[in-house]
UniProtKB/TrEMBL annotation, chains A, B:
Belongs to the chloride channel (TC 2.A.49) family. Residues 713-775 form the CBS domain. The chain crosses the membrane at residues 101-122, 150-171, 201-219, 262-286, 298-322, 342-365, 386-407, 459-478, 485-508, 520-542, 549-566. The gene is AUGUSTUS-3.0.2_05310. This is Chloride channel protein. Keywords: CBS domain, Chloride, Ion transport, Membrane, Repeat, Transmembrane, Transmembrane helix, Transport. Its main location: membrane. The keyword Membrane applies. It comes from the Eukaryota. The lineage of its organism: Eukaryota, Metazoa, Ecdysozoa, Arthropoda, Hexapoda. GO terms for biological process: chloride transmembrane transport; transepithelial chloride transport. The keyword Cytoplasm does not apply. It comes from Tribolium castaneum (Red flour beetle). Pfam families: CBS, Voltage_CLC.
Length: 782, 782
C-alpha cells in the first residue's frame, strides 16, 4: 500500500512552513523502499550518517555524537516477565521493596563515609601544608629570602596535582572535572561509558583530594555528587566489573530502570553529603533526572539524602570534637547565617547583582568554552594534560604569592578567623589578610568572606582577588584533574559581593544594614547562578547550606536575574560541556512551534526489521552489519494478495542485547530441550555489559537454525503514526524514558524508527533575545 | 477482519491467571459488534453502567462515581493550532511566557493578601472573644455564677459557626472541609465541579474565619491552600463566571493544560502563605499534582510561593509592629525552634512515637470515616448540617469549660506565654493552664505546647486534653464548615508528645536533653503523618515552619514510622474521603503484578465513532444519547471488498466540547462562507463551561448538513494496541495526562476506548500486611 495513499489531509500538511534545514527530510517517494533484506541497503544507511559528518569542526556545539546510547526505561513485558511475576507473587513485591529501602540506606551511609574521608583528608593535608607555608613565610621574610617559601609553595602545589592528574589522565579520564555533567547525562537517560564504575570512584576520590590540597581553584562538591552516583550504581547491582566479583545479591535490580533510580538516589545523597542539604539533594535529582515523578522513588531518595547528612554529621561532629552534637553549626559548609535580615529596598540591589553575576558568569563560560576547544585541539596527549595541570598549580601559587607580597593588606590580629595568621610585612600584632585567604582551602575562604566582620577586607585586595580567581578558576575547570566549580565560583562571587558592600558603604555610610557577609552571599549566588544556571535546587542548596530559610526571596530574585542575563549570551557551563561532547540530552520540553514537523521527517528509515521466527544466520549478519540496538519484529509483508504491502505489520520490539543473549545461550527452535531453564534472569545475568556479536560464536550449522522471538520481544511497544508531530513524540519519549519509538503507517506497518538522537537533533536556539529552532548534525567523529 | 484472527501468541496469553473479577471482561466474540449507528446500541451501553451500580451501599470505598470527568492535558494539534502558531511566531511565545510569569506573580501576591485577611480577622476576632471570656470567668467565679461565662462561651461559639455553616450549607457546599482533597483531585486531573470558582473562594474565606473564631477544632491552613488554587484559576483565565465578567485578557491560557499549571502554582502559593514554607509549597504541588515534571513550571511555582511568603511577611510584620523586618520569628506559624539538638539514642524513641502516631492517626481516620458515612446517610438536609455544626460548637465550649473547671491546673504567673491569664480557682499570682490553652486559637495552642518552658503542663491535664481534642477534631472535620485538620491534628499530637516527655522525664530524671517542646514537635508530626500520610512535602513544611533545618532526620523517621503503621490499617484521611466520593484518582504507579490484564479487558466498548465528514443530525443525536466526551474519528469500515472490516481505521479524536462549539457556530460544509473567522480562539472563548447539547439549537434543515471534522480533531492521538498491558496504558495515561486513549487492533482500527475510570478501577488493595488487586465498580449513584 502506498504510504501517501491515505493522506486526505494533504491540504493541512501543505500549510507547514519549511524554513528548517533537514538532514533527512524525505519526499513521500523516498519513503517507499523495499524491505531491507540485502546488505547493500544496510551500508547505505551507515553512509548517510558519515556523509553528514564530514564538515565537523572541533568545538562545534551543533553536532550530536553518534556514539552515545540511551538507557531503556520502558519495561519489556515479555512472556518471561509475566511468567516470573506469576511465580513470585505479592510476597516478592514486598521483599523487593524492602531490599530497595535497604540499598538506599546503604547508599546514604557509604556516600557519606566517602565524603567524610575526602573531607578529612583535605582538611588534614591542607592544615599540614598551610601551617608549614605560613611558618616558612614568617621565618624567611625577616631574612629577605622570600623565594624559599615561594619555592615550597609551588612544590606543595605541584606534587599533589601531579599525582592527581596522572591518575586522571592515565587511569580513568572520565574522572576529570566535576562529574556533574556526566551524572546529569546519565540521569537524563544517556549511557556514558564507565561513568559509574568503581575505578572511576577511586580515581575521583583520590584525585579530588590531590587537586584541592594542590591548591587548584577547584572544589570537592561536584566529585562528591559523582561519588554518590557511583556508590549507588555499585551497591544496587551487587557486583563489580572492576573487581570481577559477583555477590549474587540484588539480582532483580540489574536493569536500566532500577539502576537509574538508584543512581538518582546516589546523586541526591552526594549533594546532601557535599552541602549538608538533603532537600536540595532531592531537588537536584528531580531537576536533572526525573522525567516521570514517582512518589515512592522520591521518598526513598529523600531517605538516602537524610541518612547521608546524618552519617556525615555524626562522623564530622566526632572529628570536630563535639561527638553527637548534630546541630553543631560548624557542620554547615558555608557557616551559619544568623539574625540575618533584609529590607524591601535592598531587593533592587540584589537584582542588579544577579544581573552582574549573569554577565560575569557568561564571560566565565565563554572563556572556559574557548579553553576547552583549545584543549580538544592541541592538548590531546596524556602527558601534555598532566603538564598543563602542573603549570596551573604553579601559576596558582605564583599569583597568590604575588598578591600577598605586592598588596600588603594588614589588619590587627584579634578579630581574625583564620587558623594561621601570617605576618609577612605587617607590623607586630597585625596579619596579612590576603595570606589568610590564600593559606586555606577555597571552602574556608568562602566561609571567611561570608562571616568575617565588616571592614576586614579592603577594596583593592578584593578587586585583585576577584580578577585573579576569576581567570584562575576558569582555567582550572576542565583540566585533567577531579575538581568541581561550585566553591571557586562561590568564592569569586563572594569576593565581588563583598566588594560591592564596601562600595555601598561608601555611598550610604550610615546604612547599618549593609552587612558585607550578606552581600558576599548574594554575590556568590549570582556568580554561581550565572555560571551553572541551575535553578530551584541551587536556591535550596544555598538556603540549606547557610541554615537560613528566610532568605529565599533575595536568593531566588538574584538567581532569576543571573539566569536570564546569562541565557542572553550563552548556555550554562554544564550544558555547554555536554553540547561540546555531543551527548544527545533531551531538554524538558520540545522546542516551540514545531507542531509542523512530523514523524515521517524525524524518523530514521528504512528500518531493519525481523520476523517473529527468524533465521539465526540472518540475525548474526544483521547484528554484525548494523549498530542498531532495537529491531521491530513484524509479520512479513503480504505479497500473495491483490494488495501488496511493502512493510511488515508490527508485532513487537526486540533489543540487540536480547538477541545476543539468545544467540549466546543458543535458544534456537531446534534446541528445544534447553527451554526449561530459560527465564528473565538470563538477561539480567549479563547486564550491563553484554558481549558483542563478535564474542558470540555461532557455528555454520546453527546459522541454519531459527529463533522464535515472541517470548522475548516486547509485545506492545509504544508506537506513533507517521503523522504524529515532533512535540507529541518528544513528550512520549521523555515522559516514559523510551529508547526506541517505532513509527507506523495507517495500517500499523513499521515505516521508521525514532530514537533519542532523532529528537535531540531539534533544538531551541536562543541568542541575544532572538529565538528559533535549529537542527543538529549527527556525527561519528566526536 | 476478525479481531482474534491475528493472534499468533495465544499460547502466551493463555498463561495469564484469571483470578480477578472483571465487570466487563469480554470474550473475543463479544468484541465483534457492528458499528454503532443505531440508538439501540447506545442505550445498551448506558444500561451496562447502571446494572453494575445496583448494589452500591452508602460509604462503600470500592465504587467510582461515573459523574467525574477528566481534565485534558494533551494538546489538540489540529489545523487551527498549527495555523495559529504559524501566524504568531516566536515573539508570541516570548510574550506568552512573560504573561505567565506575571500571572504567577499576581497569584503569589493575591493569595498572600487573602491569607493575611483571614489571619488578621481570626486574630482580631479571637482576641475580642477570648479577652472578654477571660474577663467574665474571673469576674463571675468569685460570685459563683460560672454559668454566665459558660453561656457566653457557647454563644460566642455558636454565632460565628452558625454564620459559617449556613454559608457553606446553603451557598456553596463544596467549600466545606479543608479543600485539600478537592485540590488534590483537580491536580491529579479530575474535574471537580465548582471547586475553583470565586463564590467558593468567598464562602471558604468567610467560613474559615467563622469556624476558627467559633472555636471549632479546625485550622485555617487547608482553606488557604484551596484559596490559592481558586485565585490561580481565576486570575489566569481573565474572566469570572460568578460575576459574569470577561476581561478579555490571558485568553491563550483558557485550556485545561494551562489552567492546571496555574492552579498547581496557586496551591503552592497557598501552602507557602499558610505555613511560610515556599519549598514545602512547591513539593506539595509536585507531590499531589505533577505527573510530568516540568522545570519551567516548577520554577514559576517556586516564584509564586516565594512571592506569597514575602507578601505575607511584609503585611504581617507591619501588623505585628515590626514593619519590614522580614525575618521576625513571630512570622513563623509554629514559632522558631532554636538551639535544638538531639542525640543518636533518641532516634528509637522518635521511631516509637511515629508508630504511635500512625496508630492513633489510623483510629482517628476510622472514626472520621464512620462519621462521614453516618452523615452521608442521615444528615442530608441542609438545616440538619447547620444544626450539627452548632452542636459541635456548643460541645467544644462545654468540654473546654468542664476541663478548666474540673482539672484545676494552676501555675504561677510570670513564665506565662498566654495573653489572657485566667485565674479561675487558682490562688492569686497563679493562672489556670488549661484556660490558657482553651482561651486562644488552636494555632496559638500548638505554639504554646512547642515553646512553653518545661513543667508548664501537668500530665493529667495533658492526658484529658489529648482525649477530648482527639475526638472533638475527628467530629469536627467533615462538618458543613470550612476548616482544615492540620492544626487540630498537630495540637493533639503536640499534647501527647509533651505527655511522653513528662513520662520520659520521670523515668530518666537527669535527662537534660528531653526538652518537652522537641517531643511536642515529634508528636505533632507523628499524629499529622498518621492522619494524612503525606510525605516529603509534610517533612519540608514542618522544617520550614519551625525554621529548623537540622531536624530533618528525626522528622523523616517519625513520618515514615507513622505512615507505615497507619497504612497497615487504612488509607490517609484525604484518600479515604476521595474514595468515599468515588473520584477516579490515578495513583502514582500502576498496581503490581497486573501485566496480565490487557487493554481488551480494560477498555469500554463498543466505541461510538464518527466519520471524517459527518452528518449534523447524527452528531446531535449522538451527543444527546451518550455522555461520552471524546469520539474517535475513523475512516468508515470497508464493506465493498472481499475483506470485511467491522471497525473503522483511526484518523483522529474529536471532543464533545469541540463538537458543541462547531454546532453552535454552525461551521457546516454548507455554510462555507463562514470559514474565514474560524480560529482556535472559538474554542477558548467558551472554555471552561461549554453549553450542553440541549442549549444548542440546530434546525431540521441543518440536520441534513455535514461537518468536516478534520480541521478540528486531534489528528494523531496516542493509541495503544489491544494487547497492551494495564501498566503500559496506565503509565502513558498518567505521564501524559490523557483523557481518552483509543485502543486499536492490529490494523489500526478502533475497537475500544480507555478513560481514567477504566484505569482507576484497578486498585491495589493492602490491608494488615496482605496485598492484592481489586476491581472497583463504576456507579452513577454516588
Amino acid at each position: 500500500m502506498n504510504e501517501s495513499g491515505n493522506h486526505e489531509d494533504g491540504e493541512i500538511r501543505a500549510t507547514r512552513f519549511r524554513n528548517l534545514p533537514s538532514v533527512n527530510s524525505l519526499s513521500q517517494e523516498e519513503l517507499i523502499v523495499t524491505q531491507p533484506e540485502n546488505t547493500e541497503l544496510l551500508s547505505s544507511i551507515r553512509r548517510r550518517v558519515q556523509t553528514s559528518s564530514e564538515k565537523i569542526e572541533t568545538g562545534s556545539l551543533n553536532v550530536l555524537s553518534a556514539k552515545y546510547e540511551s538507557l531503556d526505561y520502558d519495561t519489556c513485558e515479555n512472556y518471561l516477565l509475566l511468567d516470573e511475576e506469576r511465580k513470585k507473587g505479592y510476597r516478592f513485591i514486598v521483599k523487593k521493596s524492602l531490599a530497595r529501602w535497604f540499598i538506599f540506606l546503604l547508599i546514604g551511609v557509604v556516600t557519606a563515609l566517602i565524603a567524610c574521608a575526602i573531607d578529612i583528608s583535605i582538611e588534614e593535608l591542607s592544615q599540614l601544608k598551610y601551617a608549614s607555608l605560613s611558618k616558612y613565610v614568617d621565618e624567611y621574610v625577616t631574612q629577605g629570602k622570600l623565594h624559599i617559601p615561594y619555592f615550597f609553595w609551588v612544590l606543595y602545589n605541584i606534587i599533589p596535582v601531579l599525582i592527581g592528574s596522572t591518575l586522571v589522565a592515565y587511569v580513568e579520564p572520565i574522572a576529570a572535572g566535576s562529574g556533574i555533567p556526566q551524572v546529569k547525562c546519565y540521569l537524563n537517560g544517556v549511557k556514558i561509558p564507565r561513568v559509574v564504575r568503581i575505578k572511576t570512584l577511586f580515581v575521583k576520590s583520590v584525585g579530588v583530594v590531590c587537586s584541592v590540597v594542590g591548591g587548584l581553584a577547584g572544589g570537592k562538591e561536584g566529585p562528591m555528587i559523582h561519588s554518590g552516583a557511583v556508590v549507588a550504581a555499585g551497591l544496587s547491582q551487587g557486583k563489580s566489573t572492576t573487581f570481577r566479583r559477583d555477590f549474587k545479591i540484588f539480582k532483580f535490580f540489574r536493569e536500566d530502570h532500577e539502576k537509574r533510580d538508584f543512581v538518582s538516589g546516589g546523586a541526591a545523597a552526594g549533594v546532601s553529603a557535599a552541602f549538608g542539604a538533603p532537600v536540595g539533594g532531592v531537588l537536584f535529582s528531580l531537576e536533572e533526572g526525573t522525567s516521570f515523578w514517582n512518589q515512592s522513588l522520591t521518598w526513598r531518595t529523600f531517605f538516602a539524602s537524610v541518612i547521608s547528612t546524618f552519617t556525615l554529621n555524626v562522623v564530622l561532629s566526632t572529628y570536630h570534637g563535639v561527638p553527637g552534637d548534630l546541630s553543631y553549626p560548624g557542620l554547615l559548609n558555608l557557616g551559619k547565617f544568623e539574625n540575618f535580615s533584609y529590607k524591601v529596598y535592598e531587593l533592587p540591589i540584589f537584582l542588579v547583582m544577579g544581573a552582574l553575576g549573569g554577565l560575569s558568569g557568561a564571560l566565565w563560560n565563554h572563556i572556559n568554552y574557548k579553553l576547552s576547544v583549545f584543549r580538544m585541539r592541541y592538548i590531546r596527549k596524556r602527558w601534555l594534560k598532566v603538564i598543563e595541570a602542573c603549570i596551573v598549580a604553579a601559576v596558582s601559587a605564583t599569583l597568590g604569592f604575588l598578591m600577598m607580597f605586592l598588596l600588603n593588606d594588614c589588619k590587627p590580629l584579634g578579630q581574625d578567623p583564620t587558623k594561621y595568621p601570617t605576618q609577612l610585612y605587617c607590623q607586630d600584632g597585625q596579619y596579612n589578610v590576603l595570606a589568610s585567604i590564600w593559606f586555606q582551602t577555597p571552602e574556608a575562604s568562602v566561609r571567611s568572606l561570608f562571616h568575617d566582620p565588616p571592614s576586614t577586607h579592603n577594596a583593592t585586595s578584593l578587586a585583585f582577588f576577584v580578577l585573579v580567581y576569576f581567570f584562575l578558576s576558569s582555567w582550572t575547570f576542565g583540566l585533567a584533574s577531579s575538581n568541581g566549580l561550585f566553591i571557586p565560583t562561590l568564592l569569586t562571587g563572594a569576593a565581588w559581593g563583598r566588594l560591592i558592600s564596601v562600595g555601598l558603604f561608601r555611598v550610604i555610610p550610615d546604612a547599618v544594614l549593609i552587612h558585607p557577609g550578606k552581600y558576599a552571599l548574594i554575590g556568590a549566588a549570582a556568580q554561581l547562578g550565572g555560571v551553572v544556571r541551575m535553578t530551584i535546587s541551587l536556591t535550596v542548596i544555598i538556603m540549606e547550606t547557610t541554615g537560613n530559610i528566610s532568605f529565599a526571596l533575595p536568593l531566588i530574585l538574584t538567581l532569576i536575574a543571573a539566569k536570564w542575563t546569562g541565557d542572553f549570551f550563552n548556555e550554562g557551563i554544564y550544558d555547554t560541556l555536554i553540547q561540546l561532547s555531543g551527548v544527545p540530552l533531551l531538554p524538558w520540553e520540545p522546542p516551540p512551534l514545531v507542531h509542523n514537523i512530523y514523524a515521517s521527517e524525524v524518523m530514521s528509515h528504512p528500518v531493519v526489521t525481523l520476523k517473529c521466527v527468524e533465521n539465526v544466520g540472518h540475525i548474526v549478519e544483521l547484528l554484525k552489519l548494523t549498530t542498531y540496538n532495537g529491531f521491530p519484529v513484524v509479520d512479513p509483508p503480504l505479497t500473495d494478495q491483490s494488495e501488496v504491502t511493502t512493510y511488515g505489520r508490527i508485532r513487537g520490539l526486540v533489543l540487540r542485547s536480547q538477541l545476543i543473549v539468545i544467540l549466546k545461550k543458543k535458544i534456537f527452535n531446534e534446541n528445544s530441550d534447553f527451554w526449561e531453564d530459560i527465564n528473565a534472569g538470563i538477561f539480567r545475568d549479563e547486564y550491563p555489559r553484554y558481549p558483542t556479536i563478535e564474542q558470540v560464536s555461532v557455528s555454520e550449522v546453527e546459522k541454519t537454525y531459527s529463533i522464535d522471538l515472541r517470548p522475548f520481544m516486547n509485545p506492545s511497544p509504544y508506537t506513533v503514526l507517521h503523522s504524529a508531530s515532533l512535540p507529541r513524540m518528544f513528550r512520549l519519549f521523555r515522559a516514559l524514558g523510551l529508547r526506541h519509538l517505532p513509527i507506523v503507517n495507517d495500517t500499523n506497518e513499521v515505516i521508521g524508527m525514532v530514537t533519542r538522537k532523532d529528537l535531540a537533533r531539534y533544538r531551541v536556539w536562543r541568542h541575544r533575545g532572538r529565538m528559533g529552532v535549529e537542527e543538529l548534525l549527527i556525527s561519528k567523529e566526536i
